[in-house]
Structure formats: C-alpha cells, structure tokens
Amino acid sequence: MSAATASVRRRRRLTAGGVLITALYLLPVYWMLATSLKESSDIFATPPQLFPSPISLTSYTETVVNHAGIGRGLLNSTVIAAGTTVVTLAVAVPAAYALARLRVRFVALLILLFLVVQMVPAVNLALPMFVIFSRADLVNSYAGLILANCSLAIPLAITILRPYFLSVPGEVIEAAKIDGCTTWTAFLRVALPVSVPGLITVAVISFLGAWGEFVFGLALASDEGMQPITVVLAGLTNSFGTRWNDLMAVSVVVALPIIVVFVFLQRYIVGGLTAGATKS
C-alpha cells in the first residue's frame, strides 16, 4: 500500500470520526426542534417518533407568539445583552490598550486577577450584588442587570484584547505620534483598526454570555416584567407538569440568535481567540 493511499484512508477515517462527533453534538438540538413540532400526545409515544408526524406549529403560535411573557422576556434579554456588549467594549477596549501600551505597574498581577474572576461562579456574586444594588435602587432595572453581566464580561474582554494591542509594533505608534497624533488619536487610527477581529470576538462573547445568563436574572429581577428570557423559560416548568413541546418551542427561539451568530461570525470568533492567544 502506497503512502498516498494510506494518507487518503487516514483522512477518510478522520472525516468519518468528525461527522460522527458532530452528529452526536447536534442530536440534542435536533431532538429539541423535533419535540417542538409534535403534539403533546406524540411526545411520549413508544417507540419514540424520530420525525414529527404530523408536524404541529401549535406550540409556536400559542406559546411563543401569543404568550405575553415570552415576548417581554425576549425584549428584556435583547436590551440586556446589547447593553452589556456596548458597556463592555466601551470599558475594555481603552483599558486593554492602556495595559498593553502604557507603563502600568503590576500588569501581570492585574491580568492574573482578571483570570481569577472568570473562575468565580455567578451564584457567588449574585447575593452581594443584590444587597448592593438594593441600596442603589438598581434591582429590577436594566442598568443593574447590565452592570452585573459586565462584571464578568469586562475582565474576559480585557484579557482577550490586550494581546492584540501588544501585537501593534511600538514603532508604528511612535511614528503616528511624530506625525502629530496624540496617544488617543494613535489608538483610534492605528491600534484600533488592527484589532477589529478581537473586537468582534469580544462583542460576540459578551452578547451571548449576557443572552444566556440565568443567575443574575433570577436574583436581580424579581419583577416578571424585567426578567430575561432564560428566567421566563425556567418558569415554564412547574410541579404540576411540563408541556415539553411548548418548552422546546421557546428553547428553539432562544437558541436561534446563538446559532445565527456562530454561523455568520464563526470565522471571526475562532480567528480572534486563536490570534489573541498566540500574540505576546
């Protein structure tokens, strides 16, 4: 057997393995979609129906469209996720540039603290935040939920963006200053355009992290009108039973933004994370 034939067979085995692993990962997603299109009587059929027949859109029309709480939850999650993304970028971008380019003492210690923050579970932060936000009248408000999400998003964003700004040659920054740029304009005209992949990565991670956040929404939004969709989704399960087709229909709608973002921006996300990780 020639080396070329062995290489082809090896590639085929790797491809088959990749397809199998992908199928295993996508099986829960397919089952969620299939369940959302079934009638209640077909969900627990024996043997299980692999394909919904007949296809029913009742769960989408009655629960997703006509349920006022679902629409409000989606709106709340959109506002919170968008606000978290904007605030995170506004704070993390100049902070990361300062840690990369300015002579700041204890930079390594600060980066270590940012990494440690990522290991703190959100549930450990929820109670102290509730006490502080109650005194500041930020409970049951968009501002409070956005600030809570930013407490985890900003350290991660700084950690990702700093290597991008370090990759910009110092000679280029100095040349821009010689041409009349201040530190701020050199940052805007030179360093920022080079770091666009990192900015997209941070924006996506911040948005999706806030979109899927549950603990802060549960602890800081007792008012049903302010609860994000993740908390509303959990409310569809109760001690009197769960309508699984309705629950899966809402889950499909909640997962759609995540799927769309990854389909269209996966090249920037993967490239942004790997590039930022290899620059020093």
Automatic annotation (TrEMBL):
Q: Can you tell me where the transmembrane regions are?
A: 14-33, 79-99, 106-130, 142-165, 186-211, 247-265
| Topology of this chain in the membrane | Multi-pass membrane protein
Kindly list the places in or outside the cell where this protein is found, as annotated in its UniProt entry: Cell membrane
Known Gene3D superfamilies for this protein? Answer: MetI-like (1.10.3720.10)
The principal localisation class reads: membrane
Gene Ontology CC, one term: plasma membrane
Q: Does the keyword Transmembrane apply?
A: yes
User: Which Pfam families does the UniProt record give?
Assistant: BPD_transp_1
Q: Name one GO biological process term.
A: transmembrane transport
In this chain the ABC transmembrane type-1 domain maps to 74-265
The entry's family comment says: Belongs to the binding-protein-dependent transport system permease family.
Q: What's the protein name? A: Carbohydrate ABC transporter permease
Organism, per UniProt? Jiangella ureilytica
